[in-house]
Amino acid sequence: MQSGGRGRGEALVRVCRRVAAAIFAMLVAGHAEDADAQAGRRPGEAPPPIEQVLEETAAGHGSMSIGYVNTFVNGFRLTQSKILATGTVRSHTIDLSVDYFVTNGWSVHAEIPYIVNRYQGAAPHCPTAAPPQCAMIPALKNPHPESRFLDDGSFHGDWQDWVLGVSHHADIDDGYFVTPSLTLYIPSHDYTSFANAAVGQDLNRVELGATLAHQFEFTEWYYRIGFAHVFAEETLGQNIDYNKLDLEAGNFLSEAWTIKLFGTAKKGNGYKGAYDLTSELWFHHDQRALHNYASLGLGADYRFKEKYVLSSSLQREIWGEQIFNFKYAFELRLTRDF
Description:
Elements: H1 4-29, H2 50-56, E1 62-77, E2 83-103, E3 106-120, E4 155-159, E5 161-168, E6 170-172, E7 176-187, E8 205-215, E9 221-232, E10 242-252, E11 257-268, H3 280-283, E12 292-304, E13 308-321, E14 323-337
Antiparallel strand pairs: 1-2, 1-14, 2-3, 3-4, 3-5, 5-7, 6-7, 7-8, 8-9, 9-10, 10-11, 11-12, 12-13, 13-14
């Protein structure tokens, strides 16, 4: 992994160069965006919601939100059928985001999460041999005293990555809403990534995404299909680029209530070999692993006082490969339109 401001900037430039040629093709393809601002996601709209959507994508409109996520991990899923009893991780996240339409049909997005994690178990990640919890853990041949020891059984919090994006929203073929998007994930600072309680991988990423959203004519049902390819910063020469898939189906129960069923999946490249627990590869293993998964969830939105939406969801991991065994993730989010 690159370290320091100059090295991280150079890494981001290299990643951006890899996707420059693909941007034009994605825009021409006309695939869609993150559909949270799309018609099908708005609980207060009656079908078909074309007029309202076009109004909401006008310059000067936008939204801001604050979300809370509670996640519980029990063990590490090496393969779908093999789960290692490595311990538990409890995570609390406060997520702040804002979306703003700078021109008709073009929006920008900014987001940053603050994450507090606690690891409890007998397999802490030890950057040095100094912590008492590391007495029985093989010491790294090259200790990393600059890396904070987080797996001490206490909660540790930190800001994770800036999420900066731009999307183009369009209504094509009478009610099919499509939006290509480009999103950057930039670490807010050089945080610790070698820990069960780490808040992230501390890597630059560039995401090219597209979403299609449509509400069936004369019904209150909608669906959303999203796909993205992510170009990620390499660590020790390891490519970890990956694809993401998001599926959602929902129903407008009333002008206030919406329910939805959704699924999300990630699959990509990563190191698949064995580890020497004293090596530099082990110190960077979380930045080089597959981290493949699939999850299913249920959610509901409640719109009130015209401009506010309270959303909640609960999801569970159903498949995984070299990733934490997520038992559940619960989210509660308040959004205000303007």
